[in-house]
Amino acid sequence: MLDNIRAHSLMVARVAELLALALQRRGAAIDLPLTVAAALLHDIAKTLCLDNDASHAALGRDLCLRHGYHELAPLVFQHVVLEDPCFPASPLSAKELVYYADKRVNHDQIVPLAERQAYIAERYGHDDPQRLRAIAENFERCQAIEAAIFAGLDFLPDQLAARLAATPPSWEANSFANHSEERR
After folding, report:
1. Residue 88, preceding peptide bond in cis (omega within 30° of 0)
2. pTM of the prediction?
3. pLDDT in tens, 112-165
4. What three-state secondary structure class fits 1?
5. Rounded alpha-carbon distances, angstroms, from residue 132 to 43, 47, 58, 118, 151
6. Of 143, 78, 83, nearest to 114 (Cα)?
7. CATH 1.10.8 assigned to 3-169
């Protein structure tokens, strides 16, 4: 994985974790380990697909399945386009959080959905009306998910970066503690 893709994945995981924890505090049944793991791995195959037309989401799903990560596979696959949304028929889940978090992170910076949509349209739209329409529809779904996420929280989407800056990711503290214990 290239360093820039790793940095993006780490930030997506931080956003997904922050939202999952905030929703859990409001009573939502979000699987935190699944959410963080899927966010960390959502672009696992991106580097392999940079110079070809292969789907990094499909290849990422296949890698997860090949290595026995069956729960992660559909989340990795659907981080680009949410083809099987549980929401609104079911409560928000790890799948929607990973999908949403990916749409809020451009490179390794938290941005509004409109800014991310403009970047994706420019980078992947290729001035193709059909692709651009699909990107717009994808972000319409993401806006509905954003509204559902933040309806239950005590902060707004534009406050996400500030909240994140004040909250260190739990896995870094846990990893540091585990490595420290191993060295003793």
Report:
1. yes
2. 0.90
3. 999 999 999 999 999 999 999 999 999 999 999 999 999 979 999 999 999 999
4. coil
5. 22, 23, 21, 10, 28
6. 143
7. no
